[in-house]
Design goal:
Structural class of chain B: mainly alpha
Number of helices of chain A: 15
Strand order of the largest sheet of chain A: 1-2
Distance between the termini of chain A: 62 Å
Radius of gyration of chain A: 24 Å
Helix content of chain B: over 70%
Largest sheet of chain A: 2 strands, antiparallel
Number of strands of chain B: 2
Largest sheet of chain B: 2 strands, antiparallel
Strand content of chain B: under 5%
Oligomer: heterodimer
Order of helices and strands of chain B: HHHHHHHHHHHEEHHH
Distance between the termini of chain B: 49 Å
Strand content of chain A: 5-15%
Helix content of chain A: 55-70%
Number of helices of chain B: 14
Shape of chain A: globular
Order of helices and strands of chain A: HHHHHHEEHHHHEEHHHEEHH
Number of strands of chain A: 6
Structural class of chain A: mainly alpha
């Protein structure tokens, strides 16, 4: 890009655009990991808790107790980081909310409802240990898991609407009329996007939780506690990791029709090609692709489900409507690459096991299993970066440009810096606290009393849970 | 009642409930902060954990409900308020984040040092959030948010009405929390603790009540529309609030704590309602009315469906939770 072009770009865009986008990306990217736990963890806890109650499995019951305490910490910080997002919708993007709030807002209302249900039943579940009849206590997880599904659908509905705007009409004067919030909510893109995210949550949580127990096994803790703690989430991760490539592929087929510019960026396609190659890696400099490994025809197969259909190129997109192509391409390929690796690895694990060998005996596999959790998180983040950056410069596809939605507030760099500091602090805090919980559990403490000070004369104690 | 007013009422119901339940949560920060050192304060802090632990996440959602309903039903005014009151909202948000995280972290801290650090953050952030939310309310009620947004980023909320709003919000939260904590302490048989909390709650309550009525003096000049509403249409609510607040003081004085809780809650609810009634029919006072601010009819109808579902699904579940936390079985350790 020439210097002149850069200057034009700088002078045209509001000063808050870059920090606002980064702040949104940071807080969304952080929250989405915790949201995954809110969505997927209750189902896993349900399985171990169910074994504990109905099979009299004490090890499983202990796992359920510990996981519920972990989920309490994660849910707490997930709740606040979710609140951050609802503030940021207005604080960063008044141009979006002021104009389209009544078009896109409805799913958020239902999401709030689902979240409310989840929060209430989490409260009951956490404090119900030892205070409720075991079978009723177990049932408290069911509304939590259901609320996770509905909540995911609703949030994704908003994002799907941003990618497939519908349910309103713009007059010549630019006024929003004929608003149909239900149509906006149940837009064309929502079902597949929802499925992709919902399955993704199980991939992330399944591999992450399994990885924690794999790390324990690497350190020689090979009791039944660790085996069960590994296998239950790993089974969830297996199903999810195998389903995800299929869901992702079907979802990807829509992009050619609905957002050709995004597909062009995914595929690093400068010109429309028929059939199009699959470009692995590579980088686009001054409109030319360099350093990529091209596999003929496979691009068409992946993006269009055929060996000869065209993949659109950026040359068909007006210059001021092209997304940042390299970030989008690399994010997309990282997601696909990691997703494929995860799917192949679970296939390998179960195949080898079927042949009578247990990979949990292999230190290399355990090391991989520890890495799989962070890898799954990277894939999730990369997927979001691919779809969000790939939609630029639009915040609502071909309806509202991001620069027209952003706030005019002059302090956004400061708020970005503050957000970064606070989120770093929360990450460190969560890590320290969760690690110390694990350490104390290993040391044999069961109740984890609050360490506010020496016991007072009246002997008030943390209520046992 | 028109569609717009119905949705506005549902929205404001969220504000009222948040001010009572969320307020009781936030106010516990005041007692946490003033509990003293690790040895002396351990009792209060454990009580706070026990009292708000099961409900705080649920209470938190009222705020999200308010925001979501606001931007869906009255999008233009939401954007206007968010862009004008950017700084106090950002600071309130900072408080919410730090508070929520540190409350959870403290509960599971391994060492006293960690607990102390998280505890300071928890208590401090519990104090700033209601203050800044009160400032936001004061800014809206005194007509400082222009209909198209872009109001002054500082003077919109640094003014007599906003500052009194902030102080009243903080005081109400502390009064509420005190009344709940003192009842919990007495019920679980911690007499010394209850006595200590009783004195503090009485002090906070008297101060807050005085603040509410002292605020009327500057408001008369600073926010005439609100003042006319408060002394006109909303007068019965203000009188009710004064009665409830005063009788709560008497009840706490005479150690009838379980009734006192409801009296304090009634006082806070009526003063919040009084603010709403006082600025009716304006959504942003002197700028936009509720009817003019409303979004599409189809969306308002859909929102009422959501509210109906919330009443049908959330309220029974929430009542069950509150019932459990307040029942004897759950108090037994």
């Amino acid at each position: 890009m020439t210097l002149e072009a850069l200057q034009v770009l700088v002078s045209d865009t509001p000063s808050g655009l870059l920090p606002a986008r980064n702040q949104m990306a940071l807080s969304l990217g952080w929250h989405i990991i915790l949201a995954c736990f809110g969505v997927a963890f209750p189902s896993m806890i349900f399985i171990v808790h169910w074994r504990g109650v109905f099979r009299g499995d004490a090890v499983a019951l202990e796992l359920a107790k510990r996981w519920s305490k972990v989920s309490a910490v994660l849910f707490a910080i997930g709740a606040v980081s979710g609140t951050v997002l609802s503030f940021e919708m207005g604080l960063l993007w008044p141009g979006l909310m002021g104009k389209y709030g009544d078009v896109l807002g409805l799913p958020f209302a239902f999401e709030g409802l689902a979240f409310f249900v989840e929060a209430i039943f989490l409260g009951i579940y956490l404090y119900g240990w030892g205070r409720m009849p075991p079978r009723i206590h177990l049932l408290m997880l069911v509304p939590m898991a259901c609320a996770g599904v509905i909540g995911t659908f609703c949030v994704i509905a908003v994002n799907a609407w941003m990618n497939n705007p519908t349910g309103f009409r713009l007059t010549a004067a630019g006024e929003v009329v004929d608003v149909d919030p239900w149509k906006a909510m149940f837009n064309d893109g929502v079902w597949l996007m929802f499925a992709h995210m919902w399955v993704g949550a199980f991939v992330v949580v399944g591999f992450t939780v399994a990885g924690v127990y794999a790390a324990g096994m690497l350190r020689g803790r090979r009791d039944r506690h660790h085996r069960l703690g590994f296998v239950v989430p790993f089974v969830f991760a297996t199903v999810a990791a195998l389903a995800q490539p299929l869901v992702g592929h079907v979802l990807g087929l829509r992009v050619a029709e609905s957002q050709p510019a995004k597909l062009a960026a995914f595929e690093l396609a400068e010109t429309t090609e028929q059939p199009a190659p699959l470009r692995l890696g590579g980088i686009m400099i001054d409109g030319e692709v360099r350093y990529s490994i091209d596999i003929p025809k496979i691009g068409s197969l992946i993006a269009r489900n055929s060996f000869d259909r065209p993949v659109p190129g950026l040359d068909e997109v007006p210059e001021d409507e092209r997304p940042p192509v390299n970030i989008t391409h690399w994010a997309f390929q990282s997601m696909v690459g990691i997703g494929s690796l995860l799917a192949l690895s679970v296939l390998l694990f179960w195949f080898v096991r079927w042949r009578g060998r247990d990979l949990l005996e292999s230190r290399w596999f355990l090391r991989y299993a520890v890495a799989a959790g962070p890898l799954a998180m990277i894939a999730l983040e990369a997927g979001w970066i691919a779809t969000e950056v790939g939609r630029q410069p639009w915040v609502v596809w071909q309806v509202l440009r991001t620069e027209d939605a952003v706030t005019e507030n002059p302090w956004i760099w400061w708020s970005l810096a503050g957000t970064a500091v606070v989120y770093l602090g929360m990450t460190v805090g969560a890590y320290v606290v969760l690690r110390s919980m694990a350490r104390r559990w290993r040391a044999g403490e069961l109740d984890l009393p609050s360490p506010y000070g020496p016991e007072s004369a009246e002997g008030v104690q943390e209520p046992s849970r | 009642m028109t569609l717009e007013i119905a949705v506005a009422a549902a929205l404001f119901a969220g504000v009222v409930v948040y001010s009572v339940f969320g307020g009781a949560d936030f106010g516990s920060g005041f007692f946490d902060a003033t509990a003293g050192g690790a040895r002396r304060g351990a009792e209060v802090r454990t009580l706070i954990d026990h009292s708000i632990g099961p409900v705080w996440e649920a209470n938190h959602v009222w705020l999200i409900y308010v925001l979501v309903t606001w931007w869906t039903a009255f999008p233009g005014t939401f954007a206007a308020a968010m862009s004008t009151l950017w700084l106090p909202l950002m600071l309130a948000l900072l408080g919410i984040v730090l508070r929520g995280a540190s409350f959870a972290f403290r509960k599971y801290s391994a060492t006293l040092g960690q607990a102390r650090l998280f505890g300071i953050v928890f208590a401090g952030s519990s104090l700033i959030t209601p203050f800044f939310l009160g400032c936001v309310a004061g800014a809206i009620a005194s007509g400082r948010v222009p209909a198209d947004g872009g109001g002054d980023l500082v003077s919109s909320w640094v003014n007599p009405t906003s500052l009194f709003g902030g102080l009243i919000a903080g005081g109400s939260c502390a009064y509420l929390a005190g009344s709940f904590l003192v009842a919990d302490a007495a019920r679980s048989g911690h007499r010394g603790l209850a006595e200590m909390l009783r004195v503090r709650t009485l002090g906070v309550g008297a101060l807050t009540g005085a603040l509410v009525f002292a605020a009327l003096v500057p408001i008369k000049e600073d926010a005439p529309t609100l003042f006319d509403g408060l002394t006109g249409r909303a007068l019965p609510l203000m009188v009710l609030s004064a009665l409830a607040g005063a009788s709560a003081l008497v009840l706490i004085w005479t150690r009838r704590y379980s009734v006192a809780r409801f009296a304090v809650a009634a006082a806070v609810a009526t003063v919040t309602l009084g603010w709403g009634a006082g600025q009716y029919p304006w959504l942003l006072v002197d700028e936009v009315t509720i009817v003019d601010a409303a979004g599409a009819d189809a969306t308002l109808q859909a929102l009422l469906v959501a509210v109906g579902l919330a009443v049908a699904i959330v309220l029974p579940a929430l009542s069950y939770l509150l019932f459990l936390t307040q029942s004897e079985r759950w108090l037994r350790h």
